[in-house]
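Bug report (template v2)

What were you trying to do?
Predict the complex of my protein with flavin-adenine dinucleotide.

What happened?
Run completed; filing so the output is reviewed.

Input:
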Amino acid sequence: MSGPLRVAIVGSGPAGMYAAKHLLAGFGGKGPKVAVEVDMLDRLPTPYGLIRHGVAPDHPEKKKAASVFDEVADFSGFRFFGNLELGRDVKADELAQWYDAVIYATGASGDAHLEIPGEDLTGSLSAREFVAWYNGHPDFNGVAPDLSGERAVVVGNGNVAMDVARILSTDPDVLAKTDISDTALAALRNSRIREVVVLGRRDAQHAAFKNPELEEFDELNGVDIVVEGDDLAEVRGADATTARKLDTLRRYAKRGATGNPRRIVLRFLASPVEVRGEGHVDALVVGRNRLEPGPDGQVVARPSGETKVIETGLVLRAVGYFGTELPGLPFDASSGTIPNREGRVVDGEATVSSVYVTGWAKRGPQGIIGTNKKCARDTVRSFLADATAGSLHTAGTLSRTDVEKALRERQSHVVDIAGWRRIDDVERTAGRSQGRPRVKLSDLGELLRVSAG
Ligand SMILES: Cc1cc2nc3c(=O)[nH]c(=O)nc-3n(C[C@H](O)[C@H](O)[C@H](O)COP(=O)(O)OP(=O)(O)OC[C@H]3O[C@@H](n4cnc5c(N)ncnc54)[C@H](O)[C@@H]3O)c2cc1C
């Protein structure tokens, strides 16, 4: 092996960032046995993936992980090629040819579906679209959720659902101190929504949300928390986390409605049956569930036959992100992932030489930012083992200079590190004068203009 191996990482979210760090800085500071250079590609002009476009704006502490990108950006062997999309600008087989190895860290950019009538009516959005809108994702600037009604219904009660309910219920003056998109902030200032109903298909003890998100509701000014559909009875043998969750819910239930102008209703044992409306959502039919023993000692929710109609103009479906197929790469449609063995991409039984995957594209849309650190480490370990064994496909790859030329021929508006730093600087400077971490640019044309200086 002569020079360093050249690795392309597609996707600059947590999984891509951690993979780059493991490759360039080594594990625990010991350094990899193989010298590498990393080119990171992203379809957006900005790095960070869901740290920028998923994590809620009122959770700035969770965004600190973005500093991993800044760390790797300081390595001389690292380059960023933003605004360069796999599929649109460059093909998977070209990257495989040009680089010694390619690691896909493309996340999950689609939605799980409810599979009920009316799901796609105007006024019914996935939480993914809503979250991307309030976080200033350039593809979702035009989402314009209808906030003119008094009630919104969030389907699902995982942490994304809790984020969405909290953002809809938070005083806009509080949000104005965050990096929420200006478009969303203006819309939320005019919002008439006073009640957010959060539906969970199972009972309270099996709710998907975590305690910290539940307890955060307590900090919302002017918001009552109402619990419906579960009597919150003592659960014998409940673990500490479940017991605490139930205690918090009991506290909310005991306090009940206190006349605050807004409220969040946590309704359990409830599933959507039909989204109704003529051209636009005007109601959601909700079925009451009962629980039955399921496989592996789990309980499953089954419809009891009892239904109720909730009037609403906005339904937000927070039942999960789901991976979409990337052109030229194998895809497992049942899990929405790129099939792999220990991070090595496989096509049927065969391993696709020198091609790897990490993060949500590998595991499916589960796990927090930190989960991707170990996931990326496992994938990088597989790469290093293959590199050491001499099994990478290295014949005919392009030089560092030639690959940059090839990429820039495909996309004349590539955003490099200097371009991203210009965007970062403009956003942070605008934020400082308003007491905010940054004021995000969310228009693609503007992002590209600013990146070009
Ligand atoms: C709403 C929401 C809130 C969350 N909040 C938290 C939280 O508070 N704390 C926490 O720890 N975790 C949180 N998470 C989880 C965390 O965001 C994920 O674990 C993590 O982002 C997954 O990392 P990833 O790199 O696999 O995917 P992503 O972060 O999605 O990154 C994928 C990257 O690939 C790029 N890409 C996709 N397709 C292409 C293509 N064709 N060509 C080029 N580039 C492409 C995308 O632009 C993106 O930059 C949250 C998740 C969501 C959805």
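What did the reviewer find?
Residues 113-320 form a domain with the FAD/NAD(P)-binding domain fold (CATH 3.50.50.60). The mean pLDDT is 96.
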